[in-house]
Amino acid sequence: MVINEIAGSVGVVTGGASGIGLATAERLAREGMQLLVADIDGDAAQTAATRLADLGVRTQAMAVDVSDLAQVQAMADQAFADFGRVDFVFNNAGVYVSGPIAEMTHDDWRWTIDVDLWGPIHGVEVFLPYLIEQGTGGHITNTSSFAGLAPNVELGAYCVAKYGVVALSEVLHREVRQHNIGVSVLCPMRLATDIDSSGRNRTEEYGGKPEELAIEIDEEEMAGRLLGPDVAAEAVLFGIQTNTLYLHTHIESRRFVQRRFERIDKSFDGAPGL
Questions:
Q1: CB atoms within 10 A of CB 77
Q2: 0.85 surpassed by pTM
Q3: What are the tens digits of pLDDT across the range 210-222?
Q4: Which residues have CB under 8 Å from 118's CB, separation 6+?
Q5: Does position 53 have pLDDT exceeding 90, yes or no?
Q6: Which is the catalytic residue, given 158, 163, 206, 246?
Q7: Which CATH code of 3.40.190.170, 3.40.50.720, 3.30.300.20, 3.40.50.620 fits the domain covering 10-266?
Q8: Three-state SS letters, 33-84
Q9: Is 158 a known active-site residue?
């Protein structure tokens, strides 16, 4: 089992200025973790880092667009320059586009996948070699979603990206055991975060800021109570302490995941050649 000492360790949190990222950073800071808070909004990252420093830990802040590999590498360089090491990586930054697949634009797809999937890939690509070279274990936590475990109508692009994050985490979990490195993938249902307004950070490269739309949630497809991000923070801490791969926030998601795998299992019955 991977066991990680949190007090005095160093962590990097992307999307750390609000929502799940900030709640997790606060929870880990209370455990004594020093933190680099990264966010596409540099001013918000600095505000968050100052707030965390009040909890008695060293912090730094940095503006980072996780869709850009060079910026993620610069984040790692800064973390090692400031703290001398990194033990925990939380690839959390994410965005959200809703609507039927038939109505998704190419820019909708590119933006969602570049941030939600390439962001975690970049985090793993950059930090994993450092964690292996350090030889002292560590833990990588990737934020996926319930939408990465079961299909959600009108969240096609988001599901594609988040399914990818689950796959990345599953394979990585098996591959890095020998290095005493743990891996978790966070799969929350609805939490009170700012992700519904993530379009505020969408650049012209991806078609600019979209109109703010009211999201109609189909309870059959996306059930769950609206909870605070603190429940995700507790799940992340649990994942680090126990090296648990799948982290959940809502018991409501269990039946949807079960139904999906029941459908897959049933598809073997009567299949040609089997």
A1: 11
A2: yes
A3: 654 444 555 444 5
A4: 66, 67
A5: yes
A6: 158
A7: 3.40.50.720
A8: CEEEEEECCHHHHHHHHHHHHCCCCCEEEEECCCCCHHHHHHHHHHHHHHHC
A9: yes
